[in-house]
Amino acid sequence: xxxxxxxxxxxxxxxxxxxxxxxxxxxxxxxxxxxxxxxxxxxxxxxxxxxxxxxxxxxxxxxxxxxxxxxxxxxxxxxxxxxxxxxxxxxxxxxxxxxxxxxxxxxxxxxxxxxxxxxxxxxxxxxxxxxxxxxxxxxxxxxxxxxxxxxxxxxxxxxxxxxxxxxx
Length: 168
Prior knowledge:
Blueprint: H1 2-18, H2 23-40, H3 50-68, H4 88-93, H5 96-104, H6 108-119, H7 124-131, H8 135-157
Helix pairs in contact: 1-2, 1-3, 2-3, 6-8, 7-8
């Protein structure tokens, strides 16, 4: 168990941190996740990688805690925002840590959809099923998260090289 924990804990902490408001909450999720991993290790069927199975448990533990905290409020569907292009100078100024901090500043529901779609690679249908929302709401939340991130990047790191077109 200790070897398994040492091997996967650093990477899984990063997964938990994406769904937590701070590192303390992420540590709690990591510990709870590994308790589930150890309790259910016999049910691992070798269908995929062990790391992928552990990652899924960490995500589910994090989502479960978010649901219990009632941080998932419904958001009405809105039109998808047009893309904004950033200059290479702006992109070069942003470190991974800076980007993670900006993502963690998103409202909880937007952060959750953003992480599931962009980082975990889930489809909008999978997100909708996991969060008990519509596919359109998932798309809307992602669009709003991206818009907020774009504004934060502009405020913190510089100018944007395109006009901002919104459709209704």
